[in-house]
């Protein structure tokens, strides 16, 4: 296999990679429980294994108890035993790109690096991609909480 072919194959894999995220997020969005806002959201994350985990928003009559689609997807990922996320996607029907809310940016930060791409998609496809670090700059994360950072027992 020539080096050029390898690079093309890798590029093709990268270029097609979000398609499976988009398909999974769209399929999850169909099941969104959004009777209050009417704003159905689907999300998908890719674990380091390459596996894709999806979720939808799950609203609640007690509004603050609702769950974002990203939180659902992250929960599915961790439940499957994966704790590294390399890519994420959010899909909703909006004229402006729908990105993860502040809380979900922090949720992603727990498992993803600053460089991890976060895609925003609408009915037509991906409309924007941001590195997680640009959505949550100067973030607080797991590296801040180390055994050495904990208050010593008295
Ligand atoms: Zn959220």
Describe this protein's structure.
This protein has 154 residues and is an alpha+beta fold. 34% of the residues lie in helices and 21% in strands. A five-stranded mixed sheet has the order 2-1-3-4-5. The site of zinc ion has 6 residues, from helix 3.
Layout of helices and strands:
Elements (H helix, E strand, L loop, with lengths): L2 H27 L11 E7 L4 E5 L12 H11 L5 E8 L9 H10 L5 E6 L2 E7 H4 L19
Parallel strand pairs: 3-4
Antiparallel strand pairs: 1-2, 1-3, 4-5
Bound molecules: zinc ion.
Mean pLDDT: 90
| CATH homology superfamily | Cytidine Deaminase, domain 2
Ligands present: zinc ion
CATH level-3 fold name: Cytidine Deaminase, domain 2
CATH architecture descriptor name: 3-Layer(aba) Sandwich
The backbone outline, from C-alpha atoms, is globular
Q: What is the CA-CA span between the terminal residues?
A: 62 Å
| Whole-number total of structural domains | 1
Order of strands side by side in the largest beta sheet?
2-1-3-4-5
Q: At the first level of CATH, what is the class?
A: Alpha Beta
Protein structure class: alpha+beta
Number of helices: 4
The profile of the biggest β sheet is: 5 strands, mixed
Order of helices and strands: HEEHEHEEH
Radius of gyration, CA atoms, in whole angstroms:
17 Å
